[in-house]
Amino acid sequence: MFDVIPASLRQSCSSRVQEMPDNQIVAVADLARHDASVVRLWIGEGDLPTPVYIKQAAMDALADDDTRYSYSQGLPELRQALSEYHRRHWQVDISSDRFCVTIGGMNAVTMAMQAILDEGDEVLMPTPAWPNARQMIEIVGGVNVSVPFDFSLDGDISLDLDKLFAKVTDRTRAIFINSPSNPTGWRMPFEDMQRLKEFCRERGLWIVADEVYNHFVYDDEGPAASFLQICGPNDKLLVTNTFSKNWCMTGWRAGWVVFPKGMDQLFARLCQYNTTGVASFIQRACIVALEDGDEFIRQQVERCRASRDILVEGLSVLDNVTVFSPQGTFYLFFKVHGLDESSLETAKRILREAKVGVAPGSAFGPEGEDYLRICFAIDPELAREALDRLTPFLAALTDAPRGATV
Which structural domains are found in the chain, ordered by start? Predict the structure, then answer.
């Protein structure tokens, strides 16, 4: 990435940034972003447009000249709407002054890490994991400590809490939990959430919970449990979220953080110095999404369920593929056995030869090598088309049966 920059400039650039790996998902997507013949399953966004009533709210706000600087922490009306949204879906009473509106989920994670990490502090993270979160820990001077998931031959994914706890050192500051998980679709059992809460309370550790995909669950009634249901207002808990997934607002760049009681001024300060806040007309649209968008979420989840079932059933019949049926999110993570090239090169070949855009498993850390991830937040008919293209390609990759281990 930096080999085209003159050496004199490279020496003056941040060493942390120079050492960051390129995002492999973007590397694949950039090869064919504008190729209409490609079925795009690489990036984590649905194929539906933002609902009309949400767009109309933004246009109305623009027509009213709602384009000035506003509260750094977010409009009071939006923070109140967030409080009511959490009460409605998780039966928790979170006061509006414990919310901070952010520039998408990525900015929410950024400020969460900025708020709690000093140089050299360690954050434990189950892996494979969302690469942006892994890199943000290092950008702010922290140290990412990977704790691999356990993958079984029968397609189950689990996290051994004893292995997680054994990784804690005197430099550990936080444990990062993304449940339901990108890319694996793993969902943390409620009893494990309680056990983790007690462990972190005893040792004074932070839990940073990325709960972006809580509505996207399939094997029972949603939404997925939130750490807000078992932690109090004084617990060391930071919950990050975004408007991107639930309401198809990826390009709007709006999200939020929930923080412990009394940290509002700290997060207001972080907003002031990071972004100066989210555009007011976007925040007006977010209020409408929260208040009027529950039915859209329900419809989108059912649509994802249908596409998930098509892809899981179709790929599971392949002898050289192990499918990990997701308990949540809108991602399908699967292992292709017997590959003679990296998952990145495999993803590029699938793009060229099958015209399907997938994410390489190695984008989510070395633990993801030999895996691929596809986003199924798509029309079920498009899922069938993707399956028709992928199946013969994957079957021809190797004649090797499932290996002895995954």
Answer: 7-49+296-397 (3.90.1150.10), 52-292 (3.40.640.10)
